[in-house]
Amino acid sequence: MPADWPTTEAQALAEQERLRPLVRAHDDGEAPGRLIAGVDVAYDDDRDLVAAAAVLLDRDTLDVVEQATAVGRIAFPYVPGLLAFREIPAVLDALAALTRTPDTVVCDGYGLAHPRRLGLASHLGVLTGLRTLGVAKTPFTFDHREPDAPRGSTTPLTDPVTGEEVGRALRTRPGVKPVFVSVGHRISLDTAVGTTLDLARRYRLPETTRHADSLCRRALAEARRTGTTAN
Fold first, then answer.
1. What is the longest distance spanned by two Cα atoms in the chain?
2. What distance in Å separates the CA atoms of residue 51 and residue 53, rounded to the nearest whole number?
3. Prediction pTM value
4. How far apart are CA 134 and CA 167, in angstroms?
């Protein structure tokens, strides 16, 4: 865990306010690239452990190119809206264990679709400089209409207070409930939606998320089995 990592709610809120203006919610002239990483975490609160996984896929074939895990102490208490502070230290370790740098990182969660516009995907993107996006399973506190049934249909995900579009509800499978895509960093919403569709050809969730979810759960189970404790 970084030595200056926030340990209180007040410190975390201040850090979000500091980082939020640094988010670049637009394409920066580079394509999303071929190496797409998925990151996810699993917790054991009783043992104070978090396991993070980073899985690197080839965007064209969806084959796994490389994967890595990291197990560490939970870095922050559970506070809604501040989950990134629990997850990012372990995610950074997992990403650092990869031998190749991803062109884009897909987070299981939110980016700008966050009360303070700095969910995990945006926070991670600003800290690392990587292109990031968030794909969530629920709309959190935001409003949306159901997209049309065909694959690729979208509707705006909006802040009920301001009316601002913070993401999109995206139908990745015909007739299956949508996922919720938001910008993380260095990417536009249109590109984030297109990238998600490229990665979700067979299932509701993108392959990056499916692989990372499975891997972090296995890493946590192994840590329990072996009695692993983190520094």
1. 49
2. 7
3. 0.94
4. 9
